[in-house]
Amino acid sequence: MTEKEKYFTDNQEKIARFGKALSNPIRVFILDYLANNLDKCCYSGDMAEELPIARSTLSEHLAELKKAGLIQGEINPPYIKYCINRENWEDAKLMFSNFFKR
Question: Which of 7, 11, 65, 68 has the fewest CB atoms within 10 Å around its CB?
Answer without folding.
Answer: 7
